[in-house]
Every structure is written in C-alpha cells, then in structure tokens.
Amino acid sequence: MKAQNIDQTLTGRRAFILENTRLQAPPHTPELVLHLADEITPIWRLTEEALAEIGLPPPFWAFAWAGGQALARYILDNPAIVSGKRVIDFASGSGLVAIAAMKAGAASVLAADIDVFCEAAIGLNAAANGVATAFTEVDLLGAPPPVGPPSGAEVLLAGDICYERPMAEAVMAWLAQGRAAGATVLIGDPGRTYFPKDGLVKLAEYQVPTTRELEDMAVKRTSVWTLP
C-alpha cells in the first residue's frame, strides 16, 4: 500500500475505506455485511507507525470483534429488547451492533465513537444493510448517559469495551449510571482481562469464530451480559 496522507474529509474517509476493505459477512452474523479488512485487503498488515504516517488511527472499525458479534447476534435473536426503542451503541466501531439494533426494529440508534473514521465506516455499513443510524464523535463518558424520558435512550449497548483497566472502569461506571436511570444495558465481552463480572447477569454465551491475527484463538467463547 502506498503511503500517502488520507483526505480527512468525510468523503475522503469513505473513499479510503472502500479502497482498503471489502464487503463481507461476519461469521456470527451472516445476515449482515460490513466493509472489513482481512488478509487480502491493503490495511491488514500495516504497522502502527505506517498507520500514523498516513494519518489513520488504529482501524478498530475495520474488524468485527467477538464481543460485538455476540451482542449483535443476541439482539437479532431477541428483537423485543430494542424494538421500537431509542438505542445508544457505545464505542460503535464498525457499527455492527448499531446495525443489528436497527435491523431488529429499534426506533433509532445513536452510534457513538471518538474515532471520526467510524462515522464513514458506519455510514457505509448501514447503507449496505439498508438501514440508517445517527452518529456522534462526542466522548459520552464526559457526562451522565443521555437516557430516560422524554427523548433519552432506553437501551445502552456496548461490545468489547474492556481492553484496558481505566477505560473498562470508566465505561462500566457510566453504564451503571444509565441502568440506575432506567435504561436496559447489554454488554458483549469475549473474556477480556478487565471485564468485571461481579454484579452482572449472563444472558447468553456463544462460540464466535475470529482470527489468530486479532485474537489468541480461532474461536472465542463470548458472552452477553446485562446489569440487573
């Protein structure tokens, strides 16, 4: 892949994503398609230094992570959780979970991610699945969750958010605030080190196919949890 600065407009980011990914179905949600990176796409093996050289943050949006796949699967199989409701998908990445929520009948979904490339990726992925979501790059952790009547979210979704201890603690505290305010909270997690199971209820467990390029095993035992 030729190193060159990316056009940082929304149009430029969309063009970059289309050029450097391919449309494919995540293995655990075969009814959905996403623009993803894999071993035959240009950004698959770029180092962190090479990414920085072209102006690209780590492209978490280019992969269907196990926690998101499990959460999306659960929502598709249990549409009543989101049907007719206002939903926030925190740290949305590729938008997989947000798209699943719209497919399951959510009234609206706000996909939130601080990486502005996600706006382009989620827009492309939503269109590929015949739905539309709103997007915000605002760090929602800076304020209480926007939940409750008359127009706040009724469901908070978060897939694979416990990679690092400070972030895991901050997100779990924010989600707990949302639950205390009346929102339903669902979390997808494939056994990340900093995921706290205490006080949570497991709703489902899946064996999610992944890749050894991203994970420590080819299939990840991944669970969906809720805050009671």
Report on the architecture of this protein.
The chain has helices at residues 10-20, 48-54, 66-77, 96-103, 117-128, 165-180; strands spanning 22-24, 34-36, 86-90, 108-112, 134-136, 155-159, 184-189, 201-209, 219-226. The protein is an alpha/beta fold. The mean pLDDT is 90. A seven-stranded mixed beta sheet has the order 5-4-3-6-7-9-8, with helices on both faces. Strands 1-2 form a two-stranded antiparallel ribbon. It has a single domain (66-226), classed as Rossmann fold.
Short account of what is shown:
The protein has six helices and nine strands, in the order H-E-E-H-H-E-H-E-H-E-E-H-E-E-E.
Series of H and E elements? HEEHHEHEHEEHEEE
Number of strands: 9
Query: Ranges with pLDDT <50 over ≥5 residues?
Result: none
CATH architecture: 3-Layer(aba) Sandwich
Q: At the first level of CATH, what is the class?
A: Alpha Beta
**Structural class by sheet pairing and helices:** alpha/beta
Rg over C-alpha atoms, rounded to the nearest angstrom: 17 Å
Biggest sheet record: 7 strands, mixed
DSSP summary: helix tally:
6
Helix content: 25-40%
Strand order of the largest sheet: 5-4-3-6-7-9-8
Cα separation of the termini? 48 Å
Kindly give the count of domains: 1
* Shape, per Cα inertia axes: globular
> Any idea what the CATH superfamily is called?
Vaccinia Virus protein VP39
Percentage of residues in DSSP E strands:
15-25%
Average of per-residue pLDDT values? 90
CATH fold group? Rossmann fold
